[in-house]
Design goal:
The structure is a homodimer. By secondary structure, the first copy, chain A, is α+β, with helices and mostly antiparallel strands. Chain A has a single domain (about 1-80), classed as Phosphoribosylformylglycinamidine synthase subunit PurS (Mth169, Chain: A, 2-Layer Sandwich). Helix content of chain A is about 30%, strand content about 35%. The first copy, chain A, has two helices and three strands; from the N terminus they run βαβαβ. The termini of chain A are close together. Chains A and B meet through β1, α1, β2 and α2 of A and β1, α1, β2 and α2 of B. β2 of chain A pairs antiparallel with β2 (about 35-45) of chain B.
């Protein structure tokens, strides 16, 4: 079993209203030295061992986990997770 | 300026319907060797330099960014981001 960690983030230049809202809330709470907030997704997948795992993760990211038009994705594959 | 990277994840034992839905979709797309999907948030904050930054990030996580009852959070503070 492998543990795959995927980060999905908005591309630079894409507006992030959720991040803006969080920044506004932080500012109202007194944390006004926070200049920018960007929000992304973080996914952890437990995947059975497979020799094509990297290629499959790449496909999953492109087709379902991220929207490649507006989002970037990065992943790492870690060994030896016990289910 | 510092770059703070925050990971917010559901605690173990807390149900993750979004993760379940993604796993179901992956399975229908043919990726049925994915055993489990857990979805979390990933936030990037640009914060002005401050000597109490770690303490403030800790407070922000507890009060706004995460729900400590059902979520765990982790963060790293990186140096030298140009705004």
């Amino acid at each position: 079993m492998k543990l795959v960690k995927v980060h999905v983030t908005l591309k630079e230049g894409v507006l992030d209203p959720q991040g803006k809202a969080i920044q506004g809330s932080l500012s109202r709470l007194g944390y006004d030295h926070v200049q920018e907030v960007r929000v992304g997704k973080y996914l952890e997948l437990k995947v059975e061992d497979d020799q094509h795992i990297e290629q499959q993760i790449e496909e999953m990211c492109r087709t379902l986990l991220a929207n490649p038009v507006i989002e970037n994705y990065e992943y790492t594959v870690e060994e030896g997770v016990t289910s």
